Amino acid sequence: MSDIKQAPAPQADLETSFQARSVSPGDIVKGRISKIAGEVAFIDYGARSEGYIALNELKGEDGELRFNEGDELEAEVVATRGAVQLSRRNMRAQEILGEIEQAYKDQVPVEGAVVATNKGGYEIRVRGVRAFCPSRQFSLRFEREPSSHIGKHYLFKVTEFGNGKNLVVSRRALLEAEESERSANLTSDLRVGDIKQGTVTHLKPFGAFVDLGNGLEGMVHVSEISHERINQPADKLNPGDAVEVKVIRVDQAKGKVALSMKALADDPFATFVDAVKFGAPMQGTVKRVQPFGAFVEIAPGIDGLLHVSGITAERRIEHPGEVLTVGQELTVMVEKVDRDKKRIGLLTPEVWEKRQPVVIPCKTGDVLEGPVAKVEKFGVFVSIGEKVQALIPNSEMDTDRGADHGRDFPPGTQLKFKIIEVDAKRGRIRASRKALKYHDEEVAFAEYRKQSEVPKALGSFGDLLKDFLNK
Hints:
Mean pLDDT: 83
Largest sheet: 5 strands, mixed, barrel
Radius of gyration: 51 Å
Shape: rod-shaped
Strand order of the largest sheet: 1-2-3-5-4
Helix content: 10-25%
């Protein structure tokens, strides 16, 4: 009888049999759920005995069981003493990180829950993975009560992934994209000149943001809030105020809307300018003092500039603060108005009076008489009318060389003189006493020319004059 020899088992089957019987913590096994009982599920992975896994590891984030009896799965061996304990926690964490990384690469939003706040921002849980959202990246506006968001779920954009241990997310990026898309659609229905009702949402130093409804927000620049000069929007507005605004600019590409409140209000500047009388005295109050001048309120909400050169005529001042203080009341006059730039130039009455054009009551050739006003080294000033003086240069005084005009012609002395030059633009008049010597002869000759026809051969001036005088 021949011996029957059993064929040796294939090497692969031996390895499988050995691996099935010998597993160590950290090994990954693949098996089928044979039974679900209580809070565990039993896994048949080809060993002599089955392994088990906690049922809560087979549930989704909604608490619902994701696996049933007969389903296959992979799990990690975490303990081998007694029954083999399996777990999907680490494997699932790796799967989730992989999904988050893919969302980061594809720029796809992920859902996260706010679990805590700190000094720099918010602690977020994205499918169990810890992430951080900086405060400035959480909302479009400053959050006064960050803790009010704890427990709430939002969509976030992964902005930094790294190795998955330091996730950084942003909610603001998604909000801005949504707002831009929504605004682009809504602004297409807006037209410059439209009048809208809105609510002030928040204030910035440069302007007030107004909710126009349907998710559309516009901004009223600080210069468009009021015709009055204001330093900041908070001087006139508060969050929650209902306002009426006019659309003055629409940027569809950026989804931005510029609004104006003052465009719907009467312009006090135009009303004031229409009624102003140049040179009429009016009371004003100094509001601000600058090196170049003082701003004076001359009507509610209407300021004029009193330039440093227009404050006093008595002396030259370098700074308005030398003679003016904020709150001081004074009399001023409107000198000029620029309607386009909404500027008003002011003068004090004394400067106004000095700058008025001088009316010259004479012309070249007139012979006048007037009192000496003052004597200077270069000549004598004589008065020929109210606030008008003529200069008789020393060379035209018809006096001996070296004469003391200050002694010989004290103020008040009456002098007769002839006007020899008038410069109306510069307000200067030159006169002469010497010219009076020839004045009578010139008058006589002019009279002669009027009374008789002058022959072509006139002869000398003296001969003609002699003949005229002998008649």
